Every structure is written in C-alpha cells, then in structure tokens.
Amino acid sequence: MTENDEKFSFETLALRTGHARTLEQEHCEPLFMTSSFCFDSAEQAAKRFSGEEQGNVYSRFTNPTVKCFEERLAALEAGESCVATSSGMSAILSLVMSTLSHGDKIVASRSIFGTSVNLFEKVFPRFGIETVFVDMTDLAGWIRAMSPNTKMLFVETPSNPLTEIADIAALKTIAADHNALLVVDNCFCTPALQRPIKHGADIVIHSATKFLDGQGRCVGGAIVGPKVLLEEKITPFLRSAGTCLSPFNAWIFLKGLETLHIRMEKHSANATIVAKWLHKNPLVKKTYYPGLETHPQRNLCLSQQSASGGIVSFELEGRQEAWHVVDSLNLFSITANLGDSKSIITHPATTTHGRISPEKRKAMGVSEGMLRLSLGLEDSNDLIRDLDMAFQNV
Ligand SMILES: Cc1ncc(COP(=O)(O)O)c(C=O)c1O
C-alpha cells in the first residue's frame, strides 16, 4: 500500500503502508537480514552500482525492511519522504552535515536534549557551523538571533525535560523569511499526537528509540522531509557516512508503529493522572506537563497536539529530595530511556543533561531538584501508589 495513502486514516497507514508482499505471500513484513544483494550478472552489478538500473545493492544504501519503515513513517508524519538512521543523534548529525556548510549558522531552542546541545556546541563548531541558543517561547528572541547565514532553526516540542511548547507555524514564518529550514524533533509526541509538517515544519527528526519502538528494545532514528532534499543531499551523505539503520531495528520499529496511536493515548492518559496528582502534592514545587491548565502554553498545545503526551517533569526542593524519591520507587525503572511501555524516572541534572555546565543547565531551567517521568502503560492506580509511597519521608 503506497499509492493513494491520502485516503487512509492514521491507524490504517500505521498498519499497512510500505509492505509490498513478496512471492512468499507473507502477512507480516519480512525481515531482510542481509548485508548485500546478489546480481544476475557482472553487467547487472555494474548497472546497479552506476544507478542505471534500480534495485538493492548493499544494506548501507537500501534494504527492503528499512524502506518499509521509512515509507510508513513518512506517511504517518505526512511527509514526502523519510531516511532511517542508526540513532536519533545520527539523524541530527546526518541532517546538519548533509545540508549545512562551513560558515552556516543554526538557531536552536535552549531547551533541548543534552546530547543535542553537545552536538551543536562541541562538534559542529569544529566544522565551522555555529549555533545560537534562544528561549523557545520568545519569538522576538528567535528573530533577533537570525543572521544572513542562518540556514536552520532547530526545536524540540514539547521540550525535554521542561515540556515547553514551540509555536511551529510562527517559527516557520521566521525560517521562511530567511530561507532557512525549520527542523522539529518530534520525539515526545510522535506523529500520533502531532504532525509538525502540517504546521509548517520542513523536516521532522525522530529518535525511534523512544515511543516509535515503545518497548525499549532498539536504538534508531529518522529524518522526514521533502523528497528532493532527502534524495539529493541526505541519502548520499548516509551512503558515504554509514549512519544507516539496521534492518532488524527497522523491523522492530515497524511493529512499534502498528500500535503507536493506541499506546500514545494510554501514555497521555496515565501522564495526565500523574501530573494532576503531582500538581496537588505540597512537596512538589512545580509540575511541567502541557496537559495541565496551568501550563503556560496550554492553548498552543491544544492547537498543535491531539493529546499532551507521556512525559511529565516536576521539581522537588533539591537533589537530596529528588534522589530519595528515585531510590524509594519500586515500579518506576531508573534508566536513561523514555517512551517505553514501562514507566521510567530520570534525574536529568546528573544523567541526560549531566554533561552540560551547571550554569547552562540553570539557564535551561533544569534544576537539581527536577525529575522526569516517562509514563508507561501500567495501571495508573499502581503508579500513583508507587509515587505516594516514594514521597513518604522526603
Ligand atoms: C528529544 C530527543 N531527541 C533525540 C534523542 C537522541 O536519540 P537517540 O538516543 O536515539 O540517539 C533523544 C534521546 O533521549 C531525545 O530525548
């Protein structure tokens, strides 16, 4: 099912897109676990290598299972095309390395995943690509940061871990005025809750490791965007740099996509219940969740997202109180991932955002007392009971 995708709903696309049944008539998408593909003759090998004849050559270039995942994710994101990558970070790396050059500039939201900050701050400048960080919700700040060399605007919405919401349409106007690409990391929402391209984003980035897999099994990523850009710039980079996705991981993600919308609804429902409980708890200084009426960009969230997502952050007095809660929980896993079917607790200041300097962390709003929850699919009563128990003796 690749033609006429427009007429199918999200749920149907998530199950059916991209799989062209083989002669074996399999029902489940086949896993092409092969590094290379055979040719009928020397002549055919030469034609495939030169591009004169279409077809698989080598799994760093194309693989049918990876292609199936790419087509399905592109359809779900309402994008023209998709390239799968070995991780979420390699999606960002591949995008920047293939579309920007020495002297180009990026404007990025200050409130993004710690490793993304490191990539922008420590890796790209060595190749002459500088990034200016701005407050995500201050549109005037984005405009002020633009320069003639700005070629990309980069944002995560909702952001990690503060769950701030960016106005995608407004950022698109700023990007278009400067002929720059607007890139949205859609990791927290997934296309089940938000389709940034429909709001004006040029490119969507994914860490498929998170909700797309949804069961904490594989690391992977993706870039969704215009066909011409992907074909002419990003795919050739991947072929040379080798930042490609393994077919096995692509197969796992395909299976994850099939249940994505159902899982995202339950993640959001559990997160809403937990956020409301935290919001009322006197030990919690602040709760960050776009589903709360008190969230500063609540209306923006309602205009861009169909639900508020599975990530809730909150602030306790300090590190001691935060670590006490982490260590007292039974049900929540202490692990660095998010978007798993199992609920997870993270102390961002010493883990995901630990490599950022204390001053920068403070400026980002990531305090020592902050904890991030990724709400899984367990019964919400059990989760609340676990939190209630962990909050004793704080
Ligand atoms: C918002 C966001 N983007 C990108 C990444 C990087 O993804 P990966 O770990 O798959 O490289 C993460 C990882 O936690 C993330 O939270």
The outline comes out as globular
Bound molecules: pyridoxal-5'-phosphate
Distance between the termini: 54 Å
Q: What is the residue-mean pLDDT, rounded to a whole number?
A: 96
Written as H for each helix and E for each strand, in order along the chain, the element string is HHHEHEHEHEHEHEEHHHEHEHEEHEH
Q: Tell me the major beta sheet.
A: 7 strands, mixed
- State the CATH superfamily name of the largest domain: Type I PLP-dependent aspartate aminotransferase-like (Major domain)
Derived from helix and strand composition plus strand pairing, the structural class reads: alpha/beta
Summarize, please.
The chain is built from 15 helices and twelve strands.
Description of the structure:
This protein folds into two domains: 8-258, Type I PLP-dependent aspartate aminotransferase-like (Major domain) (Aspartate Aminotransferase, domain 2, 3-Layer(aba) Sandwich); 261-390, Aspartate Aminotransferase, domain 1. The protein has 15 helices and twelve strands. The chain has helices at residues 10-16, 42-50, 64-77, 88-99, 114-123, 139-145, 168-177, 190-193, 227-241, 247-258, 260-280, 298-304, 319-328, 358-364, 380-390; strands at residues 81-85, 105-109, 130-134, 150-156, 181-185, 203-207, 221-225, 286-288, 311-315, 333-334, 344-346, 370-374. Strands 1-7-6-5-4-2-3 form a seven-stranded mixed sheet, with helices on both faces. A five-stranded mixed sheet has the order 8-9-12-11-10. The radius of gyration is 21 Å and the shape is globular. The mean pLDDT is 96. Residues 87-89, 113, 116, 156, 160, 185, 187, 207, 209, 219, 221 line the site of pyridoxal-5'-phosphate (PLP).
